[in-house]
Amino acid sequence: MHVPDGFFNVVTSISAGAVAAAGVAVCLRGARRELDDRTAPMAGLVAAFIFAVQMLNFPVAAGTSGHLLGGALAAILVGPYTGVLCMTVVLLVQAVFFADGGLTALGVNVTIMGLVTVLAGWAVFRVVTGFARGKGGVTAAAFLAALISVPASALVFTLLFWIGGTAPISVGAVAAAMGGVHLLIGIGEGVITAVTVGAVLAVRPDLVYGARGLAKPLVLRGADGESTPVGAPEPAAAPAGGRLKPFLLGGVGVTLLLAGLVSFVASPDPDGLEAVAENQGFGEQAGEHAFGGWALADYGEVGGIPVGIAGVIGVGLVLLIAGAVAFAARSRDGVRA
Fold first, then answer.
1. What was the pLDDT predicted at 62?
2. Which of 50, 76, 150, 171 could, after both became Cys, cross-link 70 (CB 3.0–4.6 A)?
3. What sections of the protein cross the membrane (predicted)?
């Protein structure tokens, strides 16, 4: 759903940019409550994974494809504040290095693909986990959160385009078209999110922000009948270079595999926004990207770089930038607030 240059007028683009900047500023402060020296590398990995999976367009209807947005996934794995930061880094790298999403539309993209998906996804997740307990409940909540976050983002795009788009539209027709195709994309998003969250829960439940508090303390009863709660070791006690390192290395390996190899079989069909824009007559408003001639533009197609190589480069960029942002935003006392 990457919005190109030319879809929105100057006032709307600047206004969305201001909203995005304010949201990111709030999240930079809020992320201190979610990040420390142990969890900051996880944020870098989550951002890189979202970048890689966004390259894997999947068919959803005749001649239309979709891809992961990732806001709900990021919020569940690393927290809503950090999730917005992860999404912002992904969108920034895509816009600057890969000409994916317009530069003047960056504020719109951060707003609808970052803020909206994270807020909607996290809200649904919290509601569902309020009565669906355990790992199964978290996984089901992840599916529903991701499913709803995608059409929510599509409908906010429609509202913004109705307010400040550069072409007249029938808001009802566009809302129906955007909502319908992105509901289908949301099903795919829900499956990807549930599978990913379930996989992390299976091996490192302590690294799933949305699953904190699931583990019950172990209670030992002595011969005298007294109970002593011993609990599981605190997640924060895991050495940064010990048990966490194999998980991070494995996650990076899976991410590189997706971006470097699986990306070759991604669907070439236009995504939901592109298809709707073409069908509703406002696709021609898209402008030329300022960096459209760069070698990595369109994931290597402009420079003749194989998509897998471009994907690996992108994963590296996102991993480094998101990791640096997370370390800069983390709590300095080593303990979550």
1. 80
2. 50
3. 6-28, 40-62, 68-93, 105-125, 137-163, 247-266, 305-329
- Find residue 59's DSSP bridge partners: 65
Stretch 176-195: mean pLDDT: 96
Give the N- to C-terminal CA distance of the chain in Å, as an integer. Answer: 35
Domain assignment of residue 39, yes or no: no
Number of structural domains the chain divides into: 1
Retrieve residue 25's tokens: 């500023």
More confident residue, 200 or 228: 200
| Mean pLDDT, residues 71-78 | 98
Q: 193 lies in a domain?
A: yes
Note the pTM of the prediction, 2 decimals: 0.90
Angle separating helix axes 134-164 and 171-203, nearest 10 degrees: 150
CB 91 within 8 A of CB 101: yes
Say if 19 falls within a structural domain: yes
**Hey, what are 337's tokens?**
């607030």
Alpha-helical runs (H) found in the chain: 10-30, 40-54, 71-78, 80-97, 106-109, 117-129, 134-164, 171-203, 244-260, 272-280, 307-329
Q: Which residue, 189, 201, 205, 317, is CA-closest to 259? A: 317
Compute the distance between CA of residue 48 and CA of residue 329 in angstroms, rounded to an integer. Answer: 18
The amino acid at 148: I
8 Å CB contact between 280 and 174: yes
Q: Are 135 and 181 in contact (CB under 8 A)?
A: no
pLDDT (mean) for 286-299: 94
User: What are the pLDDT digits (tens) for 101-148?
Assistant: 999 999 999 999 999 999 999 999 999 999 887 899 999 999 999 999
CATH number at residue 203: 1.10.1760
* CA atoms of 2 and 280, how far apart (whole Å): 17
If you compute the radius of gyration of the chain from its CA atoms, what whole number of angstroms results?
21
pLDDT reported for residue 241: 39
Task: State which H helix or E strand residue 64 sits in.
Answer: strand 64-66
> What gap in Å lies between CA 45 and CA 38, rounded to an integer?
12
